[in-house]
Amino acid sequence: MSAGRLVRAAAAGGVAGLVLRRLGQGALVMLAAGALAFAISELAGDPVAAMVGLDASPERRAEARIALGLDRPALLRFLDWAGAALGGDLGLSWRLRIPVAEALAQRLPATAELVVVSALFAIPAGLAAGTWAGLRPGSAGSRGAAAASLLGVSVPTFVIGLALIQVFAVELRWLPASGRAGTVELGGWRSSLLTAQGWASILLPALTLALFQLPAILRLARAETAEALAAEHIRFARARGLPERVALRHALRSAAPPVIAATATNLGALVAFSVITETVFQWPGTGLFFLQSVEAVDAPAMAGCLVLAAAIFVAVNLVADLAHLALDPRLRG
Amino acid sequence: MTPLLRIEDLRVAFGGRQAVDGASLEIAPGEILALAGESGAGKSALAAALLGLIPPPGRVTGGRILFAGLDLATLPEAGFRPLRGLRIATVVQDPSAALDPMASIGAQLVETLRLRRGLARGPARARAEALLAEAGLPEPAAMLSRPPHRLSGGQRQRAVIALALAGDPELLVADEPTASLDVAGRAALLALLRRLCRDRGMAALLIGHDLAAAAACADRVAVMQAGRIVETGPPETILRAPSHPWTRAMAAALPRLDAPGPVARAPQGPAVLALEGVGLSYARRALLRPAPAAVLQDVSLSLRAGESLGLVGASGSGKSSVARLAAGLLRPDVGRVRREGTVQMVFQDALGSLNPRMTAGEIVAEPVAHLRLAAPGAPTRAEVARLLEAVGLPPDAAARRPLAFSGGQRQRIAIARALAARPALLIADEPTSALDVTTQERVLALLARLQAERGFAMLFVTHDLAVARAVCPRLAVMEAGRVVEQGPAAAILDAPRSAAARRLVAAARAMAPA
Asked: What is the least distance, in Å, from the CA of B452 to any CA of chain A?
């Protein structure tokens, strides 16, 4: 075996090892999130009272406990619950009287579309503005962008949302203030991206989420670009007479991995927790469902939201790690 | 012969600071000129001016740089483009930072050859391989596909040289090209540069703070001080009969192999450090990872109170691992490490070892306060002032932060902090290898004096035999994770028994003032 092939084989082993480690860590995170979710469903509310009423006799309550399986040890019940959850059964929502998994599946498309549309606004704009500002860190425009983005990072989402509603829905009456209208069912996926009415209703919440993400992306892209551009290897590239555009390409390649990783992780967080935006706009996604479940002390639904959020976090982080691995040879050993 | 490059009364200013202040020099075609001087003398600013790459806010404020019928001092940016890489190339100080970490060596070479020499992909690849071979890299074909982090420090510097040669320049400007290498690596790299210049008829401006190294491979030496060239001449003259007082001081500061080293005092008292059959590997239990080779094998050393031991060896021989084990920062996999009393460390990177947000006074006060070492009743402040004075820092140093100090002064702060804990053993890991020779000499003298006054034992780690010789009566030579030779410094220098010791002595002699 030549030395070159040996190096490649070793690198391949390193990658497989890294992916396996990440998968193992993901499983641990899911186990911890599952335990937390189970603990919440144990502590929130009283399923026995819900079943037989608060004024039931002790005998009746004991029967209900046995019927619900609550007399068995907590660990066994957790294993049962985890096994069912692995099979996609997150229990029955106390509030809606339908399976939690079904309720989440109905609401996931709304959230997913909201996040994707907001990312389509925020990521290109944030990357472009951040890179532009990073290429000329001392300029007035760059300093202005940095200051404005600091303001943007500090303004809470609900303020942005309410301001957009005030301007575009109340004053100008261009767009609806809330709800998700104009949806079309397509193979079990209810989409609002196929009608003009649907787009009208998604624009304001998506813009709100985009304005929440954009400043962070801009700031990170600006900082990473400026740092990459100051690197010694860029100076050396210029000293070799390489054209400025090539030097910039080298700089952007170094700047890309951390920006991609942070942006991807941020997207995962949005899918999991667009709670505030969805509440402000009464957008029927998983975030609004979570809040409604908390208000109704719907323990299985809350637990289901938590498990879904953890699963999305783990998956998105794994994808971000793989992207980082593909981009940066230093991680490949 | 008309000179290839002629610098007349050059001035470069950074804001109000005049980095180059009326420097003049000439380089003939094919000539190797060494530009020596302390850090801050203006050498790098002068080199940057040759390529029109002075970092802002610096700019040329006067004088001329005549090259190829052009005056580079007034040349606009567009005028530099045909020169950079093709007529004047540069090799930078830190090869690890000079290569794009995200691209393979081959990709970087091929890109440069295609853009600057107009080669097609296939010929560019063949030329890239030839350049790597010319720069002395083993297995050039395999090197092409490797990313920089898979190369050793010396290999990276050779890859940087290959990139610099890609445009077949007439003048190579090398700014401290050996700063990151050990003594053997330095000698090999300077020999390579000399051979390349001879083979290609290429001139070189070789910048360095090491006068001896400069003299060993240059045709002529120019000495720079405070922005001016104070002396120029053949290497023998500069080393043996320097005319400028500053050059004389610098030549005298060179650590010499033949200098009488410190006399070994009769070791007293108990051992403060004993390593017994220590083995170490950085293996971690992990899936699908090949078992790494042992870093240390069967290392045994001991130090008594007040004794100093020089631990010498090439890069990667395991010296720093021994230092970390001795300090308790690592645990051995096999064998035993016994310590008596407090152990303190001084690191190579003084700036990196000091918190930039703390003042020198706070840095030194921390161990005094936390280890409750100040005499009862004596305020910490007084103890800090005594320590700063002991390491030769001015009284107002306590209020300033690390960035406000020079490299040598930072190392003094680090030494004061170590002394604050009243160590029984001081471990110094390459404490002077980032410093220029005159500063190095002062720091070494300081360590020797403090040791004599305070009686701590010292484990002095260095790749430089001459430096070890200057502070340690006894040496231990390491190679590939083992101690291959131990004994009095004089005996090892006069009659090295192991191959590793012989190589170190030969490298040190090649670099030493003749």
From this structure: 43
